Every structure is written in structure tokens, then in C-alpha cells.
């Protein structure tokens, strides 16, 4: 490697700049994911996917299987036209695989930041705003207004018809009496709860007051054709969870922008139209990552970042607690950062990786973060968050029950807070 670097000036400059005294970018912490206890456990994956563009003589991709985790440091490489961006669009739901070819799965609470090369056109429509104002505009209603249109989320006429089919449902009154009625689901309320290992979603009904709702298991709703609405609901809930991590206020956004080396003079007090090209790139990166993503996908970062910013990016990737996938033609930049490689060639994917790193990643435990006790909105309103009740293991439950019996035998009261003392 040393000889290769020495004989290639461009590569040498990249590695030299990594020694820069500039502070690395600071990606926001991704936060907890229910059920993810190790960094090697998948949070996004697709299996046996084939994709053919309309009118093409053959598939662009054949039988592709990949998985992403919080530990992922992936370089997606291949010649131009090999299908790198196509594969990423399939992974993120922007494109839909050939019918019956396989499936794509994402953890329901997983948030993804996809910095596509064409993402930079977004800020061209907001040149009169400051970067701070732009981010607050973009996320003011919880969802990302600049999110890409996903083919996989467009509801077909057949799906609409299936979703509108009436069915029998039993409504139970306050006395426990049941009454069967034929109903149609109007919408999902964005309410979701987990019973054992299955999610249930709250629904409203056509012709009923909005106060009359019911909870349905996910599998039941999937059979009724509500799969795409469930995915949209999961996205909304995941975004809402990120809002609890920090308020969408001027001060919080300013701090976030400073993490991308865009200090308040430029981030809060300068309009985007007056920024340099490099500063605009930082605005785009910061805006894409405001939602505390668990996985960051960067499309050809060496095309739009200067040497200094590449060094800052490399530092951020090294420290980031979530996963990173980089589409690139610059193997030299990714070689030290990415022990896993997705190599696309001849419409197929070859996976390469550092076996020791893979083994360590699968075993590394996820450090759970303390949940926020309150959230503050952009207007300064404070909302206290209910704390989740602690879930006890079987051994802890037996220990608790033994202590309770002993206290009762002594004529002592049993406190409901006893669980917390275990």
C-alpha cells in the first residue's frame, strides 16, 4: 500500500490530509433500536433481488443479497453503469425489484440518510434562507419534506380496492358486550404498540367518529392490503423518535451545523446563496443527517468534497455509532475506512470482507442510551415523556416474587417500585 500511495499523487494527498489538524465532522448519535443488541445484527437487508429496467434486454442486477448493520462500513464499487446506484435505490425503496424475485426488509424504526449526488439541487430552491432556517423548514412537520419519492410506496388501484374491502369486526362496549358490524378501515392513526413479538396498529373506520378506533395485528393488516401504509406509519414513528432526541430549535440546529464545520456566522446568519460551494455541501450533509440516522449512504462523496472535507468525513465515519455505505469509484479513499466491499460486475454482486472484522462486528454489543425525559419543540414547549416500565427476566421475576412473599409473611407492604431495586 505504501508504494502504491507513493506513486499516485491523488491518493497520496487523500492520505496526507487525514493528518490534518481540522476537527472531524460530528455525525449525530443514531439512538436505540428495539431488539438490536449487537452491532452486527441486520437493520436493513435484501435477499435474492433481481431488477430489470423497463424495455431492457436483460436484468441490470441478478440475485443480489446484502445486509447492513450498525457496524457496517461498506464500499460499493464497480465501473460506471455496473448498477451501484440502482442497487442502493432498491435497498432504500426508491426502486422496486422484479416481481417475485426476493424481498427487502428494514427494521421498522431504522432511519436512513441517503446523500445522493442529485440531492444538492434541493437547496437551490432555498437560496434566500439561512442553513438554519432551511433545516427547520425541512423538518418542521416531523417528516423530511425533501425525502425521495419511492416507487415502493405508490399505492396501486388493485391495492386501493383491497384496502377498501369491508369485513366483520366486533366492537366491545364498557360492559364487555360485543357487537358485530361490517366495517371498512379509513386510515392508520400512527399509533403502534408491541405485544410480545408482534406489532399492532391503531385504525379509524369509515363512517365512524375518530374517537372510535381499534388495534389490529400487523399480519391482519398485511392481508387486508395495508403493507405500504404500515411502512409509511413506521417511517413516521421513527422520525418522531428522532424528534425526542433534540428539539427543532434554532439553537439545536446551530449546534448540529457546527458539527459539520459550518459555524454560526455561516450556518445561522448567512443566506445559502452567499455560501461557497464547499459550504453548501456541508449544508446538504447536515440537513440529510438531522434525523439521527442509523445508516448513512453516501453516493460518490469524493466527487463533491474537497480534500479537507474528505479528511473530516473520514474522521466522522470512524467515530460514528451507526452504519455507513459509500458508493465510490475511489478505492483508495475507502480502503482504510471500509473492511467490507460490495463489488458489482457483470450484473452480479461479489461480497468481500475482512473475516476478523466481521466476526468482531457480530459480537460487539450495542450500548443502550438513556432515553430523554422530556422534549422541547421549536416554540420552547416542554413535554414530559413517560418512562418505559422495566422488563424483568425470568430470574429477576422469581427473585421479586420471593422477596414479596417474604415481606407479606412479615406483614409488610409490597411497594410497586420494588422492581426498580432488583
Walk me through this protein's architecture.
The protein has 422 residues and is of the alpha/beta class. The protein has 3 domains: 19-148 and 248-363, Rossmann fold, CATH 3.40.50; 153-236, OB fold (Dihydrolipoamide Acetyltransferase, E2P), CATH 2.40.50; 392-422, no CATH class. 31% of the residues lie in helices and 23% in strands. The strands form 5 sheets. A 6-stranded mixed beta sheet has the order 5-11-12-3-13-14, sandwiched between helices.
Strand count, sense and closure of the main sheet? 6 strands, mixed
The first-level CATH class of the largest domain is given as: Alpha Beta
Give the H and E element order: HHEEEHEEHHEEEEEHHHHHEHEHEEHEEH
Radius of gyration: 25 Å
List its salient traits.
six-stranded mixed sheet, three-stranded antiparallel sheet, globular, 3 domains, 422 residues, 23% strand, alpha/beta, disordered N terminus, Rossmann fold, OB fold (Dihydrolipoamide Acetyltransferase, E2P)
